[in-house]
Amino acid sequence: MGSGSIRRSAGALFRGALSGSGPRTGTFTDVPMTFAASTASSASAGSSASTNSSASTGFRASADPDTAVRSARTGSRARTGNQTRRTGSPVRRTGYPIRTVAALASGALLASPLLLAGTASADPKDETPKAPPPPAKMSKVGGDRLGVPGVQVDLAPGAPKLPGADQVTARSWIVADAESGKVLAAKNPHWQLPPASTLKMLFADTVLPKFPKDQKHTVKPADLAGMGEGSSLVGIKENLSYTVHDLWLGVFLRSGNDAVRTLAAMNGGVDATVAQMQQRAKELNANDTHVVTPDGYDAPGQVSSAYDLSLFARAGLQNAEFREYCSTASAQFPGDKGKDGKRAKFGIQNTNRLLSGDYDIKPYPGIAGVKNGSTTNAGSTFTGVAQRGDRKLLVTVMNPEKKEHNQGYREAATLFDWGFKASGKVEPVGRLVGPTSEEDGSGVDGNGNAKNGREQAQAALDAADGSGGAWTAVGITGGALVVLGLAALGVHRRWPLPELVRGRRHRKE
Description:
Layout: H1 10-13, H2 37-46, H3 54-57, E1 77-80, E2 83-86, H4 98-111, H5 113-116, E3 151-152, E4 154-155, E5 170-177, E6 182-187, H6 200-207, E7 216-218, E8 241-243, H7 244-253, H8 257-266, H9 270-283, H10 306-316, H11 320-326, E9 330-337, E10 343-349, H12 353-356, E11 367-375, E12 379-388, E13 391-400, H13 407-422, E14 426-427, E15 430-431, H14 453-465, H15 480-484
Antiparallel strand pairs: 1-2, 3-6, 4-14, 5-6, 5-13, 6-15, 7-8, 9-10, 11-12, 12-13
Helix pairs in contact: 6-9, 6-10, 7-8
């Protein structure tokens, strides 16, 4: 396999195996929602190092996209007294009698809770920590019911039944009409949770308008400093130049923290960018969000919510370039210079599996972005936008309790299916508010909470019905995306029909 190719096997897609010592803050597992239980079990039994350790995951931050997606190693070392051996290899003599070694080995086995964890005598109830309950009080931006713990939905006669808790296990989720902002159903949408790389939507909405796509930047070593261990990477190399267009493809397709850091350096640095992102969140009435890193890497205090992530997606989709990048399934990315001075290129594929597909999941009909993520603390996170007929929906899911392969995408697809069937057959339980510049101030108070509760939310929903699609979010025909290759969304404020942009789903340049 060439250095510029992207592996698509299950092992190559797995980033950050589970381990026996539990998760450590800051481990990126960005590609998945791809959790392979057998791989994790091997890593857990073979190592007691944390998920950030290269010994347990076989991964180090690397500019080479092939080395940046290695699966967990299972060739671990086993220690018995003063004797060290590699699993499957002959025992090396150390001078101790065989019976002494055997006794020490037996004692180590009996004393090791890690080794006992997988035996038949272990209580399976102790292996999975119980999920924390949602806060009793949450923000009420968008309506009072959105601040109430649990599932919120008002089914009208003939409406399809909402998927059960066994089908949608996410701690927090929301289904909203992308144009009007009506929230069709939600579960704990204002629960503040780690966002992972879905926070890159806010990064893009903040920074993308500042630089023309053909502007070039030569990467300095300082640009890439400070990236967390295990960061997802697109493969940027120091002392080489990239266009802004290249960098944004790296952000959206490969969720590259190296691309984020480079753009942040162009924008005045990480601290300045984080401050601008926080200000932008405030402008969008995304009051559940606290930004610590520009790329979504786990950090103490960094949180967002399903509601806020939906606001970020809706705002970003107003920008044609944002729509292009988030809906591109594959592209070519600049590589090293050859002896002739020419730059090689390698293929990159979007890690959003509802857009690009995977060996066990097909692209979702009508999908057109937006962003996925996964870290140790956040679990799987995903915000997507899709169209079917004249219905355009936004769906966000955060941290499914089930950890099966591509579980986050499956739950998002389930919610999309329900939302398209339920549109027009449910009473909204709230709304996605607009930016402070477009709100009249009557619906949100100084603390970001809803004024007059349901009455204000319903009044805004009624107004949205007559606005002609003030927040149009999608402009593609559902189902035609896969057949015709239409992938970019048409989004324009104050216009009911967006302009279509064709031929952007698979880029070949």
